[in-house]
Amino acid sequence: xxxxxxxxxxxxxxxxxxxxxxxxxxxxxxxxxxxxxxxxxxxxxxxxxxxxxxxxxxxxxxxxxxxxxxxxxxxxxxxxxxxxxxxxxxxxxxxxxxxxxxxxxxxxxxxxxxxxxxxxxxxxxxxxxxxxxxxxxxxxxxxxxxxxxxxxxxxxxxxxxxxxxxxxxxxxxxxxxxxxxxxxxxxxxxxxxxxxxxxxxxxxxxxxxxxxxxxxxxxxxxxxxxxxxxxxxxxxxxxxxxxxxxxxxxxxxxxxxxxxxxxxxxxxxxxxxxxxxxxxxxxxxxxxxxxxxxxxxxxxxxxxxxxxxxxxxxxxxxxxxxxxxxxxxxxxxxxxxxxxxxxxxxxxxxxxxxxxxxxxxxxxxxxxxxxxxxxxxxxxxxxxxxxxxxxxxxxxxxxxxxxxxxxxxxxxxxxxxxxxxxxxxxxxxxxxxxxxxxxxxxxxxxxxxxxxxxxxxxxxxxxxxxxx
Length: 468
What we know:
Elements: H1 2-16, H2 27-63, H3 66-71, H4 89-94, H5 102-107, H6 114-117, E1 137-138, E2 155-162, E3 167-173, E4 188-195, E5 202-209, E6 224-233, E7 238-246, E8 254-260, E9 268-273, E10 283-287, E11 293-299, E12 304-309, E13 322-324, E14 330-338, E15 341-348, E16 358-362, E17 370-373, E18 376-377, H7 381-385, E19 391-397, E20 404-411, E21 421-432, E22 447-452, E23 457-458
Parallel strand pairs: 18-22
Antiparallel strand pairs: 1-23, 2-3, 3-4, 4-5, 6-7, 7-8, 8-9, 10-11, 11-12, 12-13, 14-15, 15-16, 16-17, 19-20, 20-21, 21-22
């Protein structure tokens, strides 16, 4: 045993006393390595300069577009807070008086300024209400009427432009009931509207109906269905709907899939599942230029977003998945593409209360994604920090104006979800981002995303008929 220990000590001593070998390289190798580094730096600088010039030229062309100049005019809001309510001396002693915030006034259904956030039917707009002086004008936050004069019910929705019928289709939740149990008193699930111009919407009826008797069914009226999105599969000829499926307590956390032969349904419900074996809440789908479609969903208790491709028939997810925005607690994702760059707008997780939106960008849809900052412009500070008191749901190209889009959002009314409002606002991609990259010291080369607040704004002449 002693001889073994002695031998081991000698080996260890010999090992530690061994002098490190000197790194030898010829002068030619050293010069070649240095030249290679200089060449790579030159290429990176050249690429960055060319990319920046391209962005600057593109931004200049977009800025000089007359419609864009009109949409970028910032509108400010100055809302006066109502006088404080009278309180008893005992109440004041129990809970000291403090100023009420604008967000609290927004959430208070008895607020004296509630009409500023949820104007009544007298100010409604739409083809059955207005004259030619407001034709093609959007009024964010006001009641939007369909061709029959009824308020549009398509919350948390998305838009499909169908190349076959040359029409737009707006799919969204039909809300009914006073709480988040929004289908307790109504049989409808998903309603569809059609349009030729993105402003005049015809009610095509319920395209995915509720199950009224089978309480175990995903579509039972006591359960939750949110954020329906539809894409078309040219290979199968099917219209495929994906949606968030949940129970009344939001513990099921799944996605659901339905299909139809026509954009106006009816859609046949197929199944629900936990994609990639994870919980799924707020979600969206995105169909890329190469016809590959992706599912993006908030997961792991809303702490991270997951993204992954769908199968070729769009009826399931492939096993490939990436976790993005880890630990950032983002939801309500909406994704779009411009000049080979992918952009996303997300919301924070505060229930029905509004919060600050963030814009993100990536060169590959699977990431890595970088945060660009708050996209909201105009209104006032509180408006910008609450996404104009709304939450993102979808982004579509603004017809006839390359580089411009329509940002679709919902202004939720928790006390009466069917009275939740729609905010459609112009979104422009252009200008430098206002937040540095997370893992480097520089700013991204891609452009800033800006959503401009307007009390009213119009589509280009001809409406949505000049689709890009």
